[in-house]
Amino acid sequence: MNKTEILNLNIGPQHPSTHGVLRLYVSLDGEYIKDVKPVIGYLHRGMEKLAESRTYAQYLPMVDRVDYLSGFFYSALMCYAVERAARIEVPEYAEYLRLITMELNRIASHVLWLGTFLLDLGATSPLFYCFREREDILKLLENLTGQRMMYNYYFFGGVRYDVPDGWFDDVKRLCEKLPFMFDEYEKIITSNPIFLDRTKGIGVLRKETAVEYAISGANLRASGVKFDVRKDMPYGVYDEINFDVPSDVDGDCYARYMIRLKEMRESVRIILQGLKNIKDTEAGKIYFTKVNPLTLKVPEGDLHVCVEAPRGAAMIYLKSEGGGKPTRIKWRTPSFNAVQVMPEVMRGVLYADLIAILGSFDIVLPEVDR
Amino acid sequence: MNRDEFLEITDNKTLDASSGPVVEVDKLKILEVVSVLKQEGYDMLLCLSCVDCSDCFEIVYNFYSTFKKKSLTVKIKLDREYPEVVSVSSVYPCANWYEREVFDLFGVIFANHPDLQRLLMPEGWMGYPLRKDYAPKDSRLRWNERR
C-alpha cells in the first residue's frame, strides 16, 4: 500500500546555516522540495523610520549597520545621494580613497562568503584560509578607520581622516600577495570532486527569472546578464579604471562561486590602479570639502543613487523637503530580491541541496530586513 | 500610453544616471504603462518606494533596462484617505514583495495582489509605521528631536 504525505518543515529562524535570522517554511515530498515560503522580518530595525527623526549627519553612522559585512557601500550610497542633491564637490583624492576602501571591503566580504559557503557544504578547512586573508584586510581597514566592521569613515564631501603613514605601501603589499592566496583557494576547492558534485547543475537560476526578480550582482552575472553598476552607471572615479566584468551562462552554484572568485581578482586589479592614480592627486592631499554637519540642508527634490555592493546593486531613494532631515529614505538592498527568488530556484530540488543553494546566493539578513 | 508618447518621454536628456527621466502618470493607467515599458525593454523593476506627502501618497517605480543600459522613473499619486492602486506583480514578479512591504509600512492597498500580507512587521501589528502621523506622541520616536 503506497500512501504519500506532504511533510511541512520549519527551517530557522534560528539556524546556523541561514546566515542570520531567516525562516524557511518548506513542504517536502519525500526528499524533494515541493515549495518554499521564506519568512523575513526578524531583523527589522526600522532604518527608514529612524532616518526621519535624525539630521543627515546623525543618521550617517547608522547606515553602516544596514549590511554589517559591507558597511562602506551603504555609507557611500548615503554620501553620494546627499552630495548629488546638495551639490557638494568631492576631491579626487577622497574619491580614490573611497574606491580603494570599497574594493578592499568587497574582497573581505567575498572571502567571508567563500568560507561560510564551504562550511555550509561541510568543508571546514577553507574557512581558516579565508579568515586568514580577511584578517589582513580588516587590520588594514582598522588601521585607517579605527574600526573593524562599522567603519563610519565617509562623510559628506569626502572622508573623515587622511591615511596613516605607509598605509598605501601596506595595501600594495597585500594586493601583490592576494592573487597567490586566491590560487591557493582554487587549488583546494575548484576541482575538488565532492565540491563539484554538490554545486554543478545545482540551484540553476534561469536568466529570465533572474531579470524578472531583479536579481543583481554576481548572482545575475552567473546567469548570463552582464549588469554591473560600476560599468553601466559609473559613480565616483570608476570610469577612469580599467576592469573586466566576469560573467557565466550556467546560473548554478558553481557559476556563482567562479564569478565571485574572478571578481576578487578584478578588485585587486582595481585597487592597484587606484593606488597608481592616487599618486598623481596626492600633491594637495585634500581629503574633504568642508561641510558643516549642523547646518547641512538638502534642497527640495528626490533622487535615486545606485552602487555595486558585494551582493549586487544597492540603491537609495532620497527625498528631501529642503530641511536638515530627510523626508524619506528608502533602501533597495540586493539580498531582499535574492530571498524572494528562493522558491523559484528551490522547487523540485533535493532537500540536501537547500543549504548549498541558500549559501551560494550570499544572503545577509540584516540587509534584507533593514 | 502608446509607443510615440513613450519614445518622446524616454528620449529626454537624462539628468541623473540612476533615476533617469522622471514620468508622472495617472494611477488608473499604471498597469498599461508598465506593460508598455516591459515590451520596450525595461525588463527590471529595480526599486519601488512610497512616500507620504501629507496630502497624498506617492509611489515611485524605478525601472532599468539591461539592453539599453538606461533607467526610468515612474511616479503615481494616490489619495491619502483611500490609497488603492492595482498591483503590477503580474508584469514584474519582483513587485510582489515590494508591494507587500509598502502595504505593511504605509497601508496602501494593491488590488489583485496574490498575497497581500505584512512582510516586515509582525502579524497583527497596529497601524502603518512609515506614515507621518503614526504614533506621534510615542516618546521613543522623539528622543532625538531638538526643541
Q: How many strand units of chain A?
A: 8
Strand percentage of chain B, roughly?
25-35%
Number of separate domains of chain B: 1
Task: Give Rg of chain A in angstroms.
Answer: 21 Å
Write the element-wise H/E pattern of chain B from the N-terminal end onward: HEHEEEEHE
C-alpha termini separation of chain B: 48 Å
**Side-by-side strand order of the widest sheet of chain B:** 1-4-3-2
Quickly give the CATH architecture of chain B.
2-Layer Sandwich
Mean pLDDT of chain B equals 79
The overall strand count of chain B is 6
Low-confidence runs of at least 5 consecutive residues of chain A: none
Could you name the CATH topology of chain B? Beta Polymerase, domain 2
Q: Which whole number gives the mean pLDDT of chain A?
A: 87
In helices, the fraction of residues of chain A equals 40-55%
Please, what is the CATH homologous superfamily of chain A? Cytochrome-c3 Hydrogenase, chain B
Give the ordered list of helices and strands of chain A.
EEEHHHHHEEHHHHHHEEEHHHH
Describe the structure in brief.
The complex is a heterodimer of chains A (370) and B (147). Chain A is built from 15 helices and 8 strands. Chain A is an alpha+beta fold and 370 residues long.
Detailed description of the structure:
The complex is a heterodimer of chains A (370) and B (147). With 370 residues, chain A is α+β, with helices and mostly antiparallel strands. Chain A has a single domain, classed as Cytochrome-c3 Hydrogenase, chain B (Orthogonal Bundle), CATH 1.10.645.10. In chain A, 48% of the residues lie in helices and 13% in strands. Chain A is built from 15 helices and eight strands. Chain A has helices spanning 47-52, 56-63, 71-86, 92-121, 125-145, 167-189, 193-199, 207-212, 218-222, 229-232, 253-281, 334-340, 342-346, 354-360, 365-369, and strands spanning 7-11, 23-29, 32-39, 154-155, 158-159, 301-309, 312-320, 328-332. Chain A has a three-stranded antiparallel β-sheet with strand order 1-2-3. In chain A, helix 6 packs antiparallel against helix 11 (253-281). Chain A is globular, with a radius of gyration of 21 Å. Chain B is of the alpha/beta class. Chain B has helices spanning 3-10, 30-39, 95-106; strands at residues 22-24, 44-53, 56-65, 70-79, 84-86, 109-111. In chain B, the strands form two sheets. Chain B has a four-stranded mixed β-sheet, covered by helices on one side. In chain B, strands 5-6 form a two-stranded parallel sheet. Chain B has three helices and six strands. Chain B has one domain: Beta Polymerase, domain 2 (2-Layer Sandwich), CATH 3.30.460. The chains are: A alpha+beta (370), B alpha/beta (147). At the A-B interface, helix 1, strand 6, strand 7, strand 8 and helix 12 of A face strand 2, strand 3 and helix 3 of B.
